[in-house]
Amino acid sequence: MSVASDATSSMASGMTSNTASGMTSNTASGTTSVVAATLDQARQNRRALGPNDFTYELNVHEAYRVQHEGIALRVQRGEVPSGLKMGFTNKAKMRQMGVDSVIAGQLTQATLVADGGVIDLSDFIHPRIELEVAFRMGSDVDFTDPLCDPAAHIDAVAVAMEVIDSRFAGFGFDLGKVVADNTSAGAYILGPWLAWDHRDLSNLSAELDVNGQPAQLSSTAAILGDPLRALTELRTLAREHGLVLRAGETVLAGAATEAVPLVPGVVDGRIAGLGSVMVHAESSTKAASTDATSTQGARS
Questions:
Q1: CA pair distance 85, 189, nearest whole angstrom
Q2: For 80-104, how does the pLDDT look when each residue is reduced to its tens digit (9 = 90+)?
Q3: Count of C-beta atoms within a 10 Å radius of residue 151
Q4: Which residues is 260 bridged to in the sheet?
């Protein structure tokens, strides 16, 4: 998933043909960099973008180019790519967010929180948290290989939680916006890795508790019927949009539960047969620049 060098150069070399094939009027050549910078600044400043702050219309190809450029900005600041994440692999999540396509985003080591560690809520705009299944790759995945099977590269599986934090007020986005915004990625927490033994993951009970109370009860079947199917979807997206997956990196397969607001306290997640994961959420003195719309969206 290295985008610091080769992704930037490949985007530059491909910009002319991609522009000719259908850049929208609001995203002329070079504007993808402006859009990436706008989203990057919103993320750093913890500021939700309203309709008047973000007027760009992005098709899915433009959106993935923006995503790559945004990750490249972060790599330039010292972040290290650490894997890929799937989005909208859960039909309930699709309905919740008003989209209908599976998408992919990119992870960095800086957003990994230790199991049992602390998340500072002030680092986010309107965070939500969900329970997921994670895979670790034992070798590089060559998505250009016609016979590529990402599942064949798995060497470990774990329970995980992901914090999502849209840079758009009230989580108000369309498909292009959420892809450009790196699929609302905020942070992720991994439970203990278990050696991959080709176990059946298709219908394991999943529970997300907030401050000792059940918040979500579900099953891994919510992830496309089987979390392994997320890797098949990832293969298609990676080929189309230049995503890279290296040995040792993580794939978040998608949400087994709906996302719930992340509030101060303790969040526990458990999946039968895979174990558990936990994180503490606390607020520091930093103030996120949110608005009434984004706050309402986080609590809806």
A1: 13
A2: 999 999 999 977 667 766 777 899 9
A3: 18
A4: 129
